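This section describes the prediction task in plain terms. A model, or a person checking by hand, is given the sequence of a single protein chain and must write out its three-dimensional structure as a string of C-alpha cells. No templates, partner chains or ligands are provided. The sample shown here is typical of the held-out split.
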Amino acid sequence: MNPGSGQSRWRKYGPSIEVDVMAFGVGLSIGTVNTVCATAAEKPGKHPPGRKGAAPPTTWRTTLTFDSSGTARVGRIPRHGRVITDFADLSQRGAPAARVGHRALSAADLVATVACSVIEEVLGKAPAGPLDSGDTGIAVTHPAGYSENLVTDLRTALDSVGLSRAILVAEPIAAATWLQAERGPLTPGLALVYDLGGSGLNITLVRVGAGAPDNPIVGQPLCSREYGGRAFGALVAKDMRRGASSATVSRALSDADTGELRIEHVGRSLELVYKCLRIADVTMADVDRVLVVGGAARPPEVAQVLSERLARPVVVAPDPERTIADGAAIVARRALAQDPSGHRPHTLAGFFRRVTRVAAL
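The expected answer:
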C-alpha cells in the first residue's frame, strides 16, 4: 500500500527488508470516578501489537494503591490500607498527593501513574522501551478548562513515566473526533458537547467539519459540580429522607420517581448551557447538534430533556462513557498514521492542525 496514504506504513529493517505496519491507537480518559481505555485499529478486530492472552478490561475505578515495593495498582479498593481517590481533576484545590517511599507524587503524577498502569495492562507491555517501535499511538485526554500550567504539569508527569510520545487532547475535541468518525463527514458548523460525568457537568462548543480552526473550541468551556452522577445521587438521597420524615418510614424511590428527579436535574443544567452560548455570543439556532457524553448520560431522560428543551438533534453513543476515550484512540491512530516517527507535536496548536487535516482528508 502507498506509504503516503495514511492507511499503512512501510518501515525499513536493514537495506532490503520492509515490513508493513498498521497504525494502532490507544485512547485514555481518566475521570474522577472511572478511567476508560479504548483502542482504534485500521482493521476491525485487530489487537494491540504484541498483545497476548485474554482481552484486558476497558473500565477501571480511578483509584490507586501502592504495595510495599511501590508498585501501583489501579481500580482496587482494599479492605485494609490506604487507597487514593479524587485526584484526577488537577484544577481542584487541595488535590490529593501521595508519598511512596522517598517519592512525593503530585496529583498530576498520580494521573500519569494511572495512565502508565492502564496502558501497560492493555498493551501487555510497559509503555516505554518496546512501545517506541512506533506501531502504537497514545492519546490522553484532559478537561478543556485546564490552564496552560496544568496541561504542562500533566505533560511533565507523563514524560516522567515513559509516556513522552503520548498526545494530550482536550476531552470535547476527542468527543468531536468520535462524532466525525461515526457520523461524518459533517457539514461545517457548531456542536455543543454536553459531558455529564460522575463528578460534574462540562459544556463546550466545538467547531466541526472541514475548515475548522486550529483550536476548534469556541468561547469558554464551563464546568459545574452541581450536576452529574454524584450530585444526582445526593438529590435522590435527599428526596428519600424527605419521604421518610413525612411518612415516618423509609421508602425506596420508584423508577418513575427517579425519572422525574432526573428530568428536573437535567432541566436545571440548561442554565449552564445558555451561559456557555452567551459567552460565545451565539444562540441554539447556531448549533447544529448536541453531542451527549459521560457515564451519567446513559439514562434516556438525559437525551430526552435536551432534545425537547434545546430543539436540536441529539447524538448519544450506545455507551456514552466511552465516547471520549474512543475519540482519543482515533486521534492517536490518525496522528501516528500522519507521522510514522511517532513524535508528538510540540504544541497543542500543531496537534489541532494535524487532526483537522486528517479529518478533512
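For orientation: Residues 255-280 form the longest helix (26 residues).
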